[in-house]
Specification:
about 450 residues; Ubiquitin-like (UB roll); Porin; 2 domains; 5-stranded mixed beta sheet; membrane; BamA/TamA_POTRA; POTRA; POTRA domain-containing protein
Length: about 450
């Protein structure tokens, strides 16, 4: 949670004119036992010896606290200006680092969401993935992230990923790498009435392998570009092709392709996990198939914009508009998209998939903060990062709307396509440390269907 900036004045210094000029003296940093100093200073928008107006300096202090929080390296961030005179100010950056290494069990539903598993799949515990994973979110102190995962159960998967935000002295260029291998004995092959239909076998009927590398460029505090090049391979049994000849292009058992993706983003949210103020814009273009492997030839584009408003007295408004388009005419079921597949959804339609080559959506929520604070758990804890529990509760009303285009091949009874969808509802959100968000929502959609749903990620 963010701390409000504290201004400490040396004795005898009167309150200063916001238009007056101050010079930044020394910058002191405490609490960064693991994180390297240059990673912290990368988020600070002033430097030693710089002169600027007091009002501009105060604004930068607040924004820099937000930027340091959004690195997801610290559970506590406070920037304290220490005025040595009416024209000179030192700066103290106080930090408490997160716990960075997590050896965790894997216990995850294989379905799109909890409602899909609970309602459509009749709470089948055979559709659960389990295993183990190791996550380190600050491996060398450079905000570099490592994840190793071994998963069994409904789908076997082995994956490895690593990313480092900066590799150059200017701290503008970063790299990432990921790879995974998955086998399935149960595969969704088509949809009827906007519900997935699966085929099962005692043997593995689908294998997939993926590997990708990403280069990122962050020229300023809020702007980021990334380019990713990946290779994908999917092989399926004839059992799948007999049910859906369009699962791969040209009814092939093996689909191989290169993927090139570009993402541009401008992120000015105050807190990434659960924003209350600021904005977020992103654009993504992806080309599947580069004329080298197989004959997959797809081009997709996505654009989204979110805006967050502080309405005062504890009220906040959040809105997000998003549009997606697949410009190709021959779309294999392997690359299917639509509402119900990440990241696209309309609340109130969690139990459905609305597959299409194009969609647009708008989600909005009016939130009221009813409670927040920090609960002390144990002063005797040997781990400082778990001595306190920050929390915030919000109640909200929300309205979601969306529209999808033509249905994809191998779908039947598509009564939600080519029409506007919508829902309204009430909900409660719980926000706590390590970016954990729990939301419980009751909604009614345009067709009159009602339901109580919960999720573990902010909806907007």
């Amino acid at each position: 949670m963010l701390a409000a900036p504290s201004f400490i004045y040396a004795q005898g210094i009167p309150e200063l004119d916001p238009e007056s000029t101050v010079q930044v003296g020394k910058i002191y940093i405490t609490g960064n036992n693991k994180t390297r100093t240059e990673i912290i200073l990368r988020e600070v928008d002033f430097k030693e010896g710089e002169k600027l107006k007091l009002k501009d300096f105060a604004q930068k202090v607040l924004l820099d606290q937000q930027k340091l929080t959004n690195t997801r390296l610290f559970v506590f961030v406070e920037i304290v200006p220490l005025f040595m005179s009416d024209t000179e100010v030192d700066v103290l950056i106080r930090l408490q680092e997160r716990w960075y290494i997590f050896p965790l069990p894997v216990f995850k539903l294989a379905d799109r969401n909890f409602t899909e598993w609970w309602v459509n799949q009749n709470r089948d515990f055979g559709r659960v993935n389990y295993g183990a994973q190791l996550i380190h979110t600050n491996l060398t102190g450079r905000n570099d992230k490592l994840r190793v995962r071994a998963q069994f159960g409904f789908a076997k998967q082995y994956s490895l990923s690593y990313s480092i935000p900066y590799i150059n002295n200017a701290q503008t260029i970063g790299l990432g790498f990921s790879t995974n291998f998955t086998t399935n004995k149960t595969v969704g092959v088509q949809s009827r009435g906007h519900r997935l239909e699966f085929v099962e076998s005692d043997n593995v009927i689908r294998r997939s392998f993926g590997i990708s590398g990403t280069i990122t460029y962050r020229p300023s505090f809020y702007t980021r570009h990334s380019v990713s090049l990946g290779y994908g391979r999917s092989s399926v049994d004839d059992l799948i092709l007999n049910l859906n000849a369009n699962y791969h292009t040209d009814s092939q058992n093996i689909q191989k392709y290169l993927r090139l993706s570009y993402v541009f983003g401008v992120d000015k949210r105050d807190y990434i996990a659960y924003p209350l103020t600021g904005s977020n814009f992103s654009f993504q273009a992806t080309k599947f198939g580069l004329g080298i492997a197989n004959n997959l030839d797809l081009f997709t584009a996505r654009i989204s914009y979110a805006k967050y408003f502080d309405l005062k007295k504890g009220f906040y408004l959040a809105t997000r508009t998003e549009a997606f388009k697949n410009f190709s005419s021959d779309i294999p079921y392997l690359i299917r998209s639509g509402f119900g597949y990440r990241p696209d959804f309309i609340r109130g339609y969690e139990r459905f998939v609305v597959e299409s080559n194009a969609l647009i959506s708008h989600r909005s929520a009016l939130r009221l903060k009813v409670l927040d604070g920090v609960q002390e758990l144990s002063r005797r804890s040997l781990i400082n990062q778990f001595r306190t529990l920050p929390y915030a509760f919000y109640i909200k009303v929300f309205i979601d709307t969306g529209y999808t285009g033509n249905p994809l091949p191998n779908t039947e009874n598509n009564f939600f396509n080519n029409q506007f969808l919508g829902s309204i509802g009430l909900g409660v959100d719980l926000v706590t440390y390590y970016d954990f968000v729990f939301r419980l929502e009751y909604s009614v959609n345009k067709q009159g269907n009602t339901g109580l749903f919960f999720n573990f990620k902010a909806a907007i």
